[in-house]
C-alpha cells in the first residue's frame, strides 16, 4: 500500500513538499482531496510536526522515517526535518541509518546529513549490501565509505576539512568570522548560513553607523560624511556601504555617488565617474590583480580593451577545441603537442589583447607544424 502511494506522490517529494506529503503517507490517509487541502508551506508543516511528536516518529513498513525518505527523494529537506526532531541516526528494518542509505542509494544526500549532525560511527544492525556480490555486517558509515564508495569517501574528507573552520566561525560569531569562512569556502552547505549571519551583523553595524544621513537607494547606508539638507541625503565627501558588503568612497550628491571608488570583497574594482549611483564614464578598473584604464556605460564595461579581451577569449576557446582534435591524432609530433599544451595552460595569464593575439598567432604556427609532422 505504501509503495503504491509513494510512487504516486514522488513528484511532490521532488517539488519540496516532502514534509507534508511524507507525514500523510506514513499515516496512510492520503487522498487527492485531502492532499490538496493539506499541502501547506514548509514552515507551517514543520510547526505542525513540532506540535505532533507522533508524526515525527512514524515510519513506513520498511522502518524508514522522514529523513530516510528525504535521502531518497529530496535531500534539501534533511536539515529542516532534523531541526524539528526527526531522528537523523535512526535505523530502518534493513539496519541502516540515513547515512548508510545515502552512501548506497544517493551520495548527494551525504553532505546534508553530515551538516545536520549525522553520526558516522553507528554500526548497521544487519548486513549492508555494497553491491550484488559484496555485503558487510555491523559496518559503520565511515568504514562503508572506505570499502564501498569512493565518492562518499571524498565527501567525508571534504567535510572533515571544512568543518573545523565552520566551528571556528560559529565560535567567534562575528561579521568578520563569517565573511572569512564564506570567502575561503564559497560553495558549501554552510555558505548560505554564513552569508545570512554576515549580512545580519553588517546591517546592524551599518544602521548604528548611519545616523541621520541616508542614501537615495534603500540597500545603501551612508556611514561617513555629512547630509546638511532637510532631506538628510548624503552630500559631499563620504563613505557608503551596502548590505552585501560593497563599499563606495568618494563624492556624493543627493544620496548618490558621483565620483570615487567602488570596492567589492575588500578590493578596489573601479575608480572613476558615477551616474545615478553606478559606474558611467572613464575610470580605472582592476583586472586580474592589475589596474588598467576602462570605460563604463550605465554599469556595463564597454571600452575597446574589454571587448577585445572578450573576442580573444572566444578565439582561445576555439583554440582549445582545435587542440583536442590535434591530440586525437596518433601520428602528430608529441614534442609539438607538448609545447601547445604548455602554451594553452599559460594563456589565461595574458593581460592585453596584443599578448593574447601573439599567443593565438604562435598557436596557429605550431598547429600547422603539427599537421605537417602528421602528414
Task: Name some characteristics of this structure.
375 residues, alpha+beta, Serine Threonine Protein Phosphatase 5, Tetratricopeptide repeat, 8-stranded antiparallel beta sheet, two-stranded antiparallel ribbon, disordered N terminus
Characterization of this structure:
- There is one protein chain.
- By secondary structure, the chain is of the alpha+beta class.
- Helix content is 51%, strand content 18%.
- It is built from 17 helices and ten strands.
- The protein has helices at 2-8, 10-14, 18-27, 32-38, 42-51, 53-57, 66-73, 78-83, 98-105, 110-115, 141-148, 150-172, 175-184, 191-210, 304-327, 334-346, 353-374; strands at 127-129, 135-137, 220-226, 235-242, 247-253, 256-264, 267-275, 278-287, 290-297, 300-301.
- The strands form two sheets. The chain has an eight-stranded antiparallel sheet. Strands 1-2 form a two-stranded antiparallel sheet.
- Strand 6 (256-264) and strand 7 (267-275) form a beta hairpin.
- It is flat, with a radius of gyration of 29 Å.
Radius of gyration: 29 Å
Tell me the CATH topology of the largest domain: Serine Threonine Protein Phosphatase 5, Tetratricopeptide repeat
Order of strands across the biggest sheet? 3-4-5-6-7-8-9-10
Low-confidence residue ranges: 1-45, 330-335
Hey, roughly how much beta strand do the residues contain?
Answer: 15-25%
Question: Tally of extended strands?
Answer: 10
Task: Report the oligomer.
Answer: single chain
CATH architecture of the largest domain: Alpha Horseshoe
**Number of DSSP helices?**
17
Amino acid at each position: 500500500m505504501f509503495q503504491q502511494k509513494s510512487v504516486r506522490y514522488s513528484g511532490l517529494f521532488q517539488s519540496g513538499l516532502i514534509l507534508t506529503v511524507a507525514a500523510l503517507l506514513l499515516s496512510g490517509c492520503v487522498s487527492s482531496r485531502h492532499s490538496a487541502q493539506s499541502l501547506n508551506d514548509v514552515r507551517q508543516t514543520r510547526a505542525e510536526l513540532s506540535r505532533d511528536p507522533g508524526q515525527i516518529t512514524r515510519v513506513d513498513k520498511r522502518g524508514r522515517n522522514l529523513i530516510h525518505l528525504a535521502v531518497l527523494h529530496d535531500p534539501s529537506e534533511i536539515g529542516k526535518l532534523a531541526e524539528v526532531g526527526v531522528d537523523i541516526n535512526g535505523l530502518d528494518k534493513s539496519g541502516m541509518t540515513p547515512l548508510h542509505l545515502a552512501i548506497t542509494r544517493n551520495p548527494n544526500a551525504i553532505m546534508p546529513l553530515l551538516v545536520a549532525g549525522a553520526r558516522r560511527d553507528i554500526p548497521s544492525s544487519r548486513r549492508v549490501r555494497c553491491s550484488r556480490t559484496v555485503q558487510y555486517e555491523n559496518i559503520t558509515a565511515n568504514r562503508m565509505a572506505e570499502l564501498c564508495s569512493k565518492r562518499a569517501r571524498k565527501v567525508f574528507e571534504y567535510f572533515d576539512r571544512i568543518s573545523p573552520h565552520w566551528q571556528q566561525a560559529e565560535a567567534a560569531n562575528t561579521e568578520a568570522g563569517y565573511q572569512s569562512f564564506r570567502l575561503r569556502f564559497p560553495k558549501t552547505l554552510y555558505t548560505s548560513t554564513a552569508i545570512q549571519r554576515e549580512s545580519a551583523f553588517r546591517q546592524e553595524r551599518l544602521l548604528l553607523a548611519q545616523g541621520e544621513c541616508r542614501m537615495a537607494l534603500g540597500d545603501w547606508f551612508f556611514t561617513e560624511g555629512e547630509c546638511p539638507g532637510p532631506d538628510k541625503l548624503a552630500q559631499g565627501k563620504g563613505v557608503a556601504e551596502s548590505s552585501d558588503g560593497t563599499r563606495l568612497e568618494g563624492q556624493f550628491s543627493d544620496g548618490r555617488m558621483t565620483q570615487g571608488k567602488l570596492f567589492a570583497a575588500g578590493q578596489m574594482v573601479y575608480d572613476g565617474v558615477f551616474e545615478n549611483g553606478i559606474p558611467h564614464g572613464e575610470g580605472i578598473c582592476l583586472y586580474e590583480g592589475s589596474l588598467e584604464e576602462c570605460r563604463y556605460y550605465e554599469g556595463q564595461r564597454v571600452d575597446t580593451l574589454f571587448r577585445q579581451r572578450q573576442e580573444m577569449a572566444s578565439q582561445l576557446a576555439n583554440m582549445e577545441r582545435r587542440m583536442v582534435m590535434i591530440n586525437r591524432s596518433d601520428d602528430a609530433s608529441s614534442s609539438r603537442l607538448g609545447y601547445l599544451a604548455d602554451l594553452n595552460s599559460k594563456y589565461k595569464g595574458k593581460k592585453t589583447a596584443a599578448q593574447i593575439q601573439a599567443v593565438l598567432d604562435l598557436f596557429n604556427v605550431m598547429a600547422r607544424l603539427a599537421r605537417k609532422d602528421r602528414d
